[in-house]
C-alpha cells in the first residue's frame, strides 16, 4: 500500500527479540494481536486479484487481505472510521458532555494484573453518570445516553486505566419526553465516583488487610474524590461522533507522536497533564514494545459500552422520541420554517474501494493504463485455497455452508454470476 506505519515497523524490528526475552509474560491476546498486525497486508495470508479485461489481463492488481485487528495501525483506523460513521446516525441530536474519570495511581497495578477487574471501572462510571443526570429531576426518572470507552494508557504509554465517557446533557423522562440537564455538580461526581470505585474494588480484592488499608488511605488522601474532568461540551450528535473518533477511539500512540526510532530506541512526545507541556520520552525499543502491547485488551473484553438510551435495544426508539420532542419544541417556538429534517444518511460500512479513495486518493478498481473498471478474477485464502476463480469456474464457493453454487452453463449466465459476485460488497468480506 506504499505506507507502513512506524508502530508496525518498530514491532517488526523488535518482536523476535522481545519474544525471546519476555516470552513467558506475553499474554495470549498480545501474541495474537501482534501476529495479526505483522501479517496484515501480506499476500501470504490471502488476497484478491483484479485484472483489466480490456487490456487482456496485462494490468493486474493484487489486494492483500488485512488483519482487522483494532490494535493494527491501519485496520484500527478503518474500524474507528466505521464506528464514527455509524454513531453519527445512532446518537440523539442533543448536546453531549465529554467526561474523563480517573483513579488513584496506587490502584493501577491491580487492574494491570487483573484485567477483568477493569469492568469495575466501566460499571462504576455508568452508574455514577446515570445517577448524576437522574437526580436533577428525580420524579421524572430521566434516562440519559452514555457511551463509555476504557483507555488503559497515559500519554507516556504507561498503564493508566481511566474512563472516557460521552453523556447526553439530559435524558428521556418516563413519559418519553426529553428533559435537558445543563449543569452537573463536579464535586458530587468526583466523590461519588471515588466511593463507587472503592466500594466495588473492595468487593473484588478486599479480603486482605493490605487492601483495606489502601482503601482507607485513599479516602483520607483524596477528600475531594478521584480526579474527574468534564468541561468539554459538544453541541450535537455529529460533533459527538467526531469526538469519539478523535479522542475516545484513538490508539495508544498516534503515528505523529513518534519522533524517531531505530533498532535500539524509540523517541516520542506527549502532552503532560502535570506540566501542560510537550514532554519527550526516549525508551529502549523493548520497553516501547512492552508498553504498547500492554494496552491490548483481553480477547473477549469489550472496551466500549453503551448505556441508558444508547443501550443497543433502546437506541432506535430513543432517537425517534428525541426527534419528536425536538419537532414539538420547534413548533412551539413557531419557527416552523427554520426546522430542517437532517438528511437521513444511511449508515453503512465504507467499502474497500471508498476507503482506498479516502485514504490514498486512488481507485483500486480502475486500470492505470486504460482507465476501465478492473474485474475481480480471484480470491485466494491460505486455508481454503482459491475460493473464487473467474477463469476456472466463475462461481464462488460458499465457505460456511460448504455448498457449491452450480457452474453457469452459458455465457450470459456466466456474466450474470460475475457481476453478482464481483462487487465491492463481496470484496468487503475479505479485503478489509
Ligand atoms: Zn491490519
Ligand atoms: Zn486496462
From TrEMBL:
A biological process (GO) of this protein is:
DNA transposition
Transposase zinc-binding domain mapped to chain residues: 10-103
Q: Specify where the region named Disordered lies, as residue ranges.
A: 402-424
| Location of the Transposase IS801/IS1294 domain | 145-315
What GO terms are given for molecular function? DNA binding; transposase activity
Pfam families to which the protein is assigned, alphabetical: Y2_Tnp (PF04986), Zn_Tnp_IS91 (PF14319)
Supply the PANTHER family for this chain.
ISSOD25 TRANSPOSASE TNPA_ISSOD25, TRANSPOSASE
What is the name of the protein in this document? Transposase zinc-binding domain-containing protein
Amino acid at each position: 500500500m506504499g505506507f507502513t506505519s512506524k508502530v508496525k515497523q518498530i514491532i517488526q524490528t523488535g518482536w523476535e527479540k522481545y519474544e525471546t526475552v519476555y516470552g513467558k509474560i506475553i499474554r495470549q491476546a498480545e501474541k495474537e494481536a501482534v501476529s495479526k498486525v505483522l501479517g496484515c497486508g501480506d499476500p501470504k495470508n490471502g488476497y484478491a486479484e483484479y485484472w483489466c479485461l480490456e487490456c487482456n489481463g496485462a494490468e493486474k492488481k493484487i489486494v492483500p487481505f488485512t488483519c482487522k485487528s483494532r490494535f493494527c495501525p491501519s485496520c484500527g483506523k478503518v474500524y474507528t472510521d466505521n464506528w464514527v460513521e455509524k454513531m453519527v446516525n445512532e446518537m440523539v441530536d442533543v448536546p453531549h458532555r465529554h467526561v474523563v474519570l480517573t483513579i488513584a495511581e496506587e490502584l493501577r497495578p491491580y487492574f494491570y494484573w487483573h484485567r477483568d477487574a477493569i469492568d469495575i471501572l466501566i460499571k462504576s462510571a455508568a452508574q455514577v453518570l446515570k445517577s448524576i443526570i437522574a437526580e436533577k429531576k428525580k420524579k421524572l426518572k430521566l434516562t440519559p445516553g452514555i457511551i463509555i470507552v476504557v483507555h488503559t494508557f497515559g500519554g507516556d504509554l504507561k498503564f493508566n486505566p481511566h474512563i472516557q465517557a460521552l453523556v447526553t446533557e439530559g435524558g428521556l423522562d418516563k413519559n418519553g419526553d426529553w428533559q435537558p440537564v445543563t449543569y452537573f455538580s463536579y464535586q458530587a461526581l468526583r466523590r461519588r465516583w471515588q466511593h463507587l470505585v472503592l466500594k466495588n474494588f473492595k468487593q473484588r480484592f478486599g479480603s486482605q488487610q493490605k487492601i483495606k488499608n489502601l482503601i482507607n488511605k485513599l479516602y483520607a488522601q483524596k477528600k475531594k474524590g478521584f480526579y474527574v474532568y468534564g468541561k468539554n461540551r459538544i453541541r450535537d450528535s455529529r460533533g459527538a461522533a467526531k469526538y469519539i473518533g478523535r479522542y475516545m477511539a484513538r490508539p495508544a500512540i498516534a503515528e505523529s507522536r513518534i519522533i524517531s526510532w531505530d533498532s535500539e530506541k524509540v523517541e516520542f512526545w506527549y502532552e503532560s497533564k502535570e506540566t501542560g507541556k510537550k514532554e519527550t520520552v526516549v525508551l529502549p525499543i523493548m520497553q516501547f514494545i512492552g508498553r504498547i502491547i500492554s494496552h491490548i485488551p483481553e480477547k473477549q473484553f469489550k472496551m466500549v459500552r453503551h448505556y441508558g438510551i444508547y443501550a443497543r435495544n433502546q437506541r432506535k426508539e430513543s432517537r425517534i422520541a428525541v426527534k419528536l420532542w425536538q419537532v414539538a419544541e420547534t413548533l412551539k417556538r413557531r419557527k416552523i420554517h427554520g426546522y430542517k429534517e437532517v438528511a437521513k444518511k444511511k449508515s453503512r460500512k465504507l467499502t474497500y474501494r471508498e476507503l482506498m479513495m479516502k485514504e490514498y486518493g486512488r481507485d483500486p478498481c480502475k486500470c492505470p493504463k486504460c482507465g476501465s473498471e478492473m474485474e475481480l478474477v480471484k480470491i485466494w485464502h491460505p486455508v481454503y485455497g482459491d475460493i473464487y476463480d473467474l477463469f476456472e469456474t466463475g462461481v464462488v464457493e460458499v465457505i460456511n455452508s460448504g455448498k457449491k453454487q452450480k457452474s453457469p452453463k452459458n455465457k450470459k449466465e456466466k456474466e450474470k454470476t460475475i457481476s453478482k459476485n464481483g462487487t465491492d460488497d463481496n470484496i468487503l468480506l475479505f479485503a478489509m
